């Protein structure tokens, strides 16, 4: 079992400790889980489950929020 | 005596006083954006869903300047070129903020940013089935507008001219036809360049107007935001007042009798 996970977050490679949850990843990036939305391997990860969902090696995540737009 | 106090409009069961919706792109900074929104009197702003800047997570956010508890955020799908991208974007938007009143736009090409109506219709059907209330950016095609309504669009939003062009309402006949045939609100979205354009849209019977560039790229955006607020109100009043009929020739305003 790998000690570290290889992830792709917002198109960039990232590593995370094995056993981390999505919420762990979000907070480790300095983000507030309440202010973003997360897509985990192509599916929306409901905010209520972020702390419960474990990350897997090779996972692809998109973390988004609102910006100005027309 | 005209009662101008209760001229509200309703979309997806939500009632608003202001008939001007503004975008939040192209501003110099968040402060200017917030000041423009304030001057415009808008109660709804459109926002885009984008990746968080992971390398600068503490960068200021739009929500720090425009309070989503006071102003209704309308997530849009700007930058989406197919139904799947648009649907995915709106699912994320709903997850981020709980909003189900959303603006759908599916673009066909970057040069004209004209809507891809086939993908737009597909996306509207899927979103409506998932409980979204999509306000839909579309071409000024009265038949397509009806199809979108039948597919679950809660508002029809035809363009007056290409996004960001400022060319004004180039298609008054077709917009009027859409207004006449619609059972949901029709708002002009795209093409407004100056105040008179907004008034024209309202005089055609639209429930409202959405604009971004017209305000953001004005030399004085705050002043233009105020102008737009007045223009939308003026156009709406003129529409409700019932304009005079046009004549081919003159009809004097002063009596002909009693000339010296």
Write structural notes for this entry.
The complex is a heterodimer of chains A (70) and B (260). With 70 residues, chain A is mostly beta strands. Chain A has one domain (4-65): Ubiquitin-like (UB roll), CATH 3.10.20. Chain A starts with a strand and ends with a strand. Helix content of chain A is 10%, strand content 40%. Chain A is built from one helix and five strands, in the order E-E-H-E-E-E. Chain B is an alpha/beta fold and 260 residues long. Chain B has eight helices and ten strands. Chain B has a five-stranded parallel beta sheet. In chain B, strands 6-7-8 form a three-stranded parallel beta sheet, covered by helices on one side. In chain B, a hairpin with a 2-residue loop joins strand 1 (9-11) and strand 2 (14-16). The longest helix of chain B is centred in the last third of the chain and has 21 residues, at 221-241. Chain B starts with 8 loop residues before the first strand and ends in a 19-residue tail after the last helix. Strand 5 of chain A pairs antiparallel with strand 4 of chain B.
